[in-house]
Every structure is written in C-alpha cells, then in structure tokens.
Amino acid sequence: MSSGVVVTPGNVSVYHGGNLKVIDRRMRVAEVVLRCAICVLGVLAAVLVGIDKQDKVIFSIDKKAKFTDMKALVFLVIANAIAASYSFIQGLRCTVSMLRGSLLFNKTLAWAIFSCDQIMAYVMLAAVAAAAQSSVFGEFGQSELQWMKICNMYEKFCTQVGEGIASSLVVSLIMVTISGMSAFNLFRLYGSNKGKNSGR
Amino acid sequence: MSSGVVVTPGNVSVYHGGNLKVIDRRMRVAEVVLRCAICVLGVLAAVLVGIDKQDKVIFSIDKKAKFTDMKALVFLVIANAIAASYSFIQGLRCTVSMLRGSLLFNKTLAWAIFSCDQIMAYVMLAAVAAAAQSSVFGEFGQSELQWMKICNMYEKFCTQVGEGIASSLVVSLIMVTISGMSAFNLFRLYGSNKGKNSGR
C-alpha cells in the first residue's frame, strides 16, 4: 500500500502515499502562488491599460488618445479583469482545501476547473495576440494601407499600453501553466479503476 | 482483472480491459480523423490567404492588395502550413499504431506529443486572433486613429481572407480538442502505480 486512496463522504479522497502526498502538496502550493500572481498581474494590466490616456495639441487641435479607441485594448482590460477575479476565487478554493489537508477527487469539479482554466488560458492568449497586433500597427503603422503610426505622437500612452500587454502576456503564460496542472489533476483520475471509482 | 495492462518491450503497453480498449480505439480513430481534418483545412486556409490578391485602379493609379501587406496574414499562412504538416506526421503515427493495434504508454513520447499539441493550439489561436484583429481594422477602419477601412475597395480580397480566417478558426478549435486528448493520454499515465511503472 504505497499509495492507498481513502474515499471519504462527499467524493473527497486523501492520498496516504509518501511521494504522491509530497508532490500533491507542492502542486497545491504552486497553484495558490500562481493564481495569486495572476490576480496581482491581471489587476495591474487592467489598471495600466484602463486608466491610460494622453492629450496632445496638434495644429491647435486638442486630440486625445484613450484605450477605448482600440477595441482590442477594451477586450484586453475585460479579459484581465475576468482572469483576476476568477483566479481570486480559485485561489481561495485552493487555500481552503490546502488548509483542510484534503485533495478533491470529484470528477465533476475537476472537469469544471479544467474547462474554466482552459477557456481562460485561450481567452487571455487571444486577447494578448489581438492587442499586440493593434499595438504593432500603432507603433509601426502599415504604409501599404495608409495607416499611419500613432506612437510617435502619443509616446507615454503607447509605453503604458506596452507595459499592460507585457503584464497580460505573463498572466496568459501562467494561465497556460495552470491549465496544464488542472489537466493533470483531472486526467490522472482516469489512470486506473481506483481513480475512476473514487470519483463516483 | 477487468483492465489489466501488459507491458511489452519498448515501453509499449496493451490494454486488455473491455471498456478501456473500446474507448481507446474510438479515441485513436477520432484523433486520426481530427488530424486529417486539420491537414485539409490548414492547407485550404494557407492557400486561400496565400494566393489572395486584387488589383484596383483608383484615380488612374494601379493599386494592389496582397496578403503580405499585413504581417498577421503572413503569420496565419505560416501557422496553418506548420499545423497541416505537423498533423500529417502525427496522423501517420496514429494510423500506424492503430493498425499495429498497440497503445503507446511511453511517458517521454506522450510528453513530447502533449507539448507539441499544446504549442500548436496556442500558436494557431494567437495567429487567428491577430489576423481577425487586422481584418476588423480592414473591414471597419478605426476612425479615431484615421485608419480608413479598405474592404470597400478590395471586396473580393477581403472575402477570401475572411474564408481563410474561418477555416483557420476551425483548425485552431480542432487543435484545442486534440491537445485535450493528448493531455488525457499523458496524464492518465500518472493515475496509479501501474501507469507509472508502464512508462518507465
């Protein structure tokens, strides 16, 4: 019995195997840290882009650049806000289950967490890609289409958007890592009859 | 012994459990079909966008729209070509192992397939998001930044790019499904000592 599984009411199982227990505890701690990081960086990115604006007087005309001028930046702010809120809730769940010292082996819950993590990772990555594409147009323009660059006029605005996108990129990479961890937590339940039964 | 695992030389294991065998065979068939679909749709998307161009005479000036005018479309063509080639190779591997009637339980190979599938899914999704963002600018323009829309001039060009992006979107959704399947194939090896040992 090197890795026995005790099934308790409410579909909660606790590993008693030495190695697996240590690995699981480390993974749980890593998950809490990563979800907290998403929370902080997601809020930072949303604030950096969301409050970003710059006024400029060009030929006596007052012009203003703000993040709502590009729909991709609005999408980025919303995606970061959702990712931060979602990670806050998931971080709380992880902390509570870690403090209780239990490992959830409920397949339905594992499927729900896996699905949400996957969706969040793909949404964040799509938001970063779209915002990065918009920023490339802003930074370099597209001379073939007569789309002029704007970052030579709104330097401070573009720098702050760049910082927001960099922060969002880190959020999406962490989200990708977490979605891999939740895939591990879900699919290892299908590894043997033990796992299968513990989920029922 | 409802799902015994026989370990054969070369880290190849064969399930003899009734249900698991049927599920595994169905998953293998589904994987081959999905990888073939990526192959066909990826080539279709790359060709649709890659050969797309349109000439237009505007105020006696001959103007030409081609996919290289937008870097995001070049990225989309390359991503589709890589996805199609990769899926062709993986489809061949799946077909061969299906014909041999064996299920690979080599952890190193499972990790390699999982990693490549994940990278392909994220790259395809990023490519589609960036291309879609560029197309939105082309279709609607961005009046706040004086970026005028171009699709009223190059209708045929834009329609064909749209078809290419739609095809790429399907490719990326299939790639997401396949990356889920390869996560299942990998992480179930960690479900019990059986799975662990069979991979060593």
TrEMBL record, chains A, B:
State the membrane topology. Multi-pass membrane protein
Q: Which InterPro entries match?
A: CASP/CASPL, CASP_dom
Superkingdom is Eukaryota
Q: Where are the transmembrane segments?
A: 32-51, 71-89, 109-132, 165-187
Q: Which GO terms describe its cellular component?
A: plasma membrane
Query: In this protein, which residues make up the domain named Casparian strip membrane protein?
Result: 25-173
UniProt KW keywords: Cell membrane, Membrane, Transmembrane, Transmembrane helix
Compartmental location = Cell membrane
Q: Which family does it belong to?
A: Belongs to the Casparian strip membrane proteins (CASP) family.
Which NCBIfam families has this protein been placed in?
A_tha_TIGR01569
Looking up PANTHER family in the UniProt record yields: CASP-LIKE PROTEIN 2B1 (PTHR33573:SF64), CASP-LIKE PROTEIN 4A4 (PTHR33573)
- Subunit info? Homodimer and heterodimers.
Write down what this protein is called.
CASP-like protein
What is the protein's species of origin?
A: Cinnamomum micranthum f. kanehirae
